[in-house]
Specification:
Blueprint: H1 7-17, H2 38-54, H3 65-72, E1 76-83, E2 88-89, H4 90-109, E3 112-113, E4 116-117, E5 128-135, E6 141-142, E7 149-152, E8 155-156, E9 159-160, E10 189-194, E11 200-203, E12 206-210, H5 211-216, H6 224-233, H7 262-275
Parallel strand pairs: 1-5, 1-10, 2-6, 5-7, 10-12
Antiparallel strand pairs: 3-4, 8-9, 11-12
């Protein structure tokens, strides 16, 4: 089934992009470490040229997953938007958290080579923490501990959301003066789990997938729809109408792979290569 970024996301991104002026592509650093396999050099180059000609504000946009990690100096926080009436026990909550962290780590591990950051990537690990849950009714969450903040009845796009005052999407300056828990309790992205949803959506705001699909996949090594949508959060494109030369099957070409492939890995690294100068690397 196709996975796509929805019209709501595109509108949101357009609004966010308008906050930033267009800037030119950063100059390549002569010391860049860049040694993709020979058979992937051409298709990777084709992908980046396609991105440069189709993204409206590629170098000016400042809320990719890269920006979020760098602003936090090496970690990422999430909110879970539980768009379902199914009850959640403390045990299920913890499994949902663990599976998200495990899938996110798969992309972060792409940035490592022999245990070190590749091409000046500064972090060997990027810890992920779920800091909040959003629900329609408090009774849906069957725990009483205070390990996460709970937001009840804050509805946006017909779904519960954590407080916008704590969300990076709404506060891209990195300051959270109206967030009750301050910076420590802010969330960079949301894992939006919707009952009955097929496929998924992804962007700088997070990922949206089916709640049943996700819960049924908690023991899977690869939750491939979530992995695909996390790729979008870091800027990777969809490939609905074209395929780069010499490659056929990879995660970001929806339906052709169920895990991060070598081609996905080098596309991901290439995005970092072209943006890292904004962080001084």
């Amino acid at each position: 089934m196709k996975r796509r970024r929805g019209t709501a996301l595109l509108a949101a991104v357009a609004a966010t992009v308008s906050m930033f002026s267009m800037v030119s592509a950063p100059a390549a650093n002569a010391a860049d470490q860049w040694n993709p396999p020979a058979n992937l050099v051409r298709p990777i180059d084709e992908v980046w040229r396609h991105v440069e000609t189709t993204y409206p504000n590629l170098y000016g946009f400042r809320n990719y997953g890269w920006d979020q990690i760098m602003a936090n100096r090496g970690y990422i926080n999430y909110c879970v938007r539980w768009d379902s009436n199914q009850p959640v026990t403390a045990a299920l909550r913890d499994r949902i958290h663990a599976a998200l962290a495990r899938q996110f780590k798969k992309w972060m591990d792409v940035q490592l080579e022999n245990g070190q950051g590749y091409n000046n990537w500064p972090y060997r690990e990027v810890p992920l923490k779920v800091v909040g849950w959003a629900v329609r009714n408090r009774s849906t969450l069957q725990w009483s501990d205070s390990s996460v903040d709970i937001y009840v009845g804050n509805i946006n796009e017909n779904a519960p959301q954590c407080a916008p005052e704590c969300g990076r999407f709404f506060n891209q300056s990195g300051n959270y003066p109206r967030c009750p828990g301050g910076v420590a309790r802010h969330y960079d992205m949301s894992l939006w789990l919707t009952a009955g949803l097929g496929g998924g959506f992804g962007g700088d705001w997070g990922q949206r997938i089916g709640s049943e699909y996700y819960v049924n996949s908690l023991n899977n090594d690869n939750i491939h729809i979530l992995l695909h949508e996390i790729g979008h959060s870091f800027g990777l494109d969809d490939f609905y109408d074209w395929t780069p030369t010499g490659v056929c099957c990879f995660l970001m070409k929806a339906g052709s792979a169920a895990q991060i492939t070598e081609f996905d890995k080098w596309m991901f690294r290439d995005f970092w290569r072209h943006l890292k100068s904004r962080y001084g690397y």
